Amino acid sequence: xxxxxxxxxxxxxxxxxxxxxxxxxxxxxxxxxxxxxxxxxxxxxxxxxxxxxxxxxxxxxxxxxxxxxxxxxxxxxxxxxxxxxxxxxxxxxxxxxxxxxxxxxxxxxxxxxxxxxxxxxxxxxxxxxxxxxxxxxxxxxxxxxxxxxxxxxxxxxxxxxxxxxxxxxxxxxxxxxxxxxxxxxxxxxxxxxxxxxxxxxxxxxxxxxxxxxxxxxxxxxxx
Length: 223
Known about the structure:
- By secondary structure, the chain is an alpha/beta fold.
- Helix content is 33%, strand content 20%.
- The strands form two sheets. Strands 1, 2, 5, 6, 7, 8, 9, 10 and 11 form a nine-stranded mixed sheet that branches. A two-stranded antiparallel sheet has the order 3-4.
């Protein structure tokens, strides 16, 4: 995204030593509007540790976010009917998800309360994220003035990403032909990157081979 000399790297001490802003609120946004063509069935309804991907993501996000917003598109009715706790999230449906991820992101951002201070977002195909990773990201958002906060594993940037209220407005103002990265890159010199011990921030589960590997790793740990 940018050269290291331009980037603000945060360490674990930031969250401990900075002043927590009173009443600071973070909304959560889970993107689940894709067609799942490579997977062959809706990724949101795949199961991991006795939960659907989407149920699990909602549960992870609600620990640090309020509200949790889910954007659906393809197979929207099937996904909602297949969830175990749909009442714990707000749902937005992109009527034309083929227009691109930005339109799904904007559908979700439009549902975020105007008074939230930040928003944390990720695709639905990261169900193996550690709860501690989301807690660390939320802590950095609450104690930093960075407009963008990004977790890093093995030197690579991952999800979830946390953005400030100002960036929510900028993303909503983008034309359909633009990309969300246009806004993110605009603020790269102020972005906070911090290391996490969680490879799941990088490994999206988007095809049968990746899903089989995820389940295989889970079974080997249980065995």
